[in-house]
Write the structure tokens for this entry.
Amino acid sequence: MTRRNIFFYYSIFLSICLVLAGLTMVFPVEAANKKREDLIKERCETIKDDLKNVQREDAKVRVHLGSKYEIILNRFIMPLNVKLVEKNMSNADLVENQNNFVEAKTTFSNDYIVYQQQLEELVAMDCKAEPGQFYEKLIKVRQKRKTMEQDTMLLRNLISKHIRLVTRLKEKI
């Protein structure tokens, strides 16, 4: 991943954190709910605009990552395993890694669909009329977004593992 991509993902993550930071301040429980709801009501339009921006940027990131994962799988991982099988050099670790990658990519796609649906529901909510429910939904969306982050880390780790396995295979040959 290039520095430009890393900076892009980091800036999106940072902007989301900054937008949502005002919603998660620590107060005594009773006062916190009232202050949080007042803050949500007061900043409702700004919050919704920011969430729409996050939604738009996340869609771009998902398309970018999804296409990169497809390319990695279809142009590198699978063809190598096919060639190895054709030459009777099948490598169980590479096959297992391919299966894990396919499963993780499917999980990533499914989690993104759920995340996007939850985010759409959140954006559609009237945060002035239902600030408490809006906040609860926001927490769920943030949790699902964290799951998405874990999915991408798993895929990144599987790609790194594939590179290590290929390097070891190359040394054997």
Q: What stands out?
A: The chain has one domain: 3-172.
